């Protein structure tokens, strides 16, 4: 194949590709929790475009194809909230999610306003939980959001440093 994956800021032209990828990636989460009405599966394109305009959105490309994405923004209190880390199913288990997580932390931390990083996932999302723990996050709270799902919020200080991969 010979192509390498590149990570860069998303553009307005990436909005539809990101939304289609998000829909594909969240199918497994919806199945895991028996809930196909979760926000990532119902998010309208206009809402995603607003996130592109108002926050930091990164994409990973294989050639011209968007194969992964992540979003984040720093609140006024200095908490960098990271969300919707998605990787195309065929690209999973190759370290791309970790690379994107590192990249968004670096980007959000570079502005100097991030005091901590925070993200969340469902309690049954074991691969997500393993990834976040490996990158220095620790559970800080849980919130039951429905009959079948509890959201686990994980956080780490911005001074923890970005995880360096050995591969």
Detail the topology: elements first, then pairings.
Layout: E1 5-9, H1 15-25, H2 27-33, H3 39-42, H4 45-54, E2 56-62, E3 65-74, E4 79-87, H5 96-110, E5 116-122, H6 126-134, E6 138-144, E7 150-157
Parallel strand pairs: 4-5
Antiparallel strand pairs: 1-2, 2-3, 3-4, 5-7, 6-7
Describe this structure in words.
The protein is of the alpha+beta class and 167 residues long. The protein has a single domain (5-160), classed as 3-Layer(aba) Sandwich (Aminopeptidase), CATH 3.40.630.30. The protein is built from six helices and seven strands, in the order βααααβββαβαββ. It has helices spanning 15-25, 27-33, 39-42, 45-54, 96-110, 126-134, and strands at 5-9, 56-62, 65-74, 79-87, 116-122, 138-144, 150-157. It has a seven-stranded mixed β-sheet with strand order 1-2-3-4-5-7-6, sandwiched between helices. Strand 6 and strand 7 form a beta hairpin. The chain is globular, with a radius of gyration of 15 Å. The two termini are 19 Å apart.
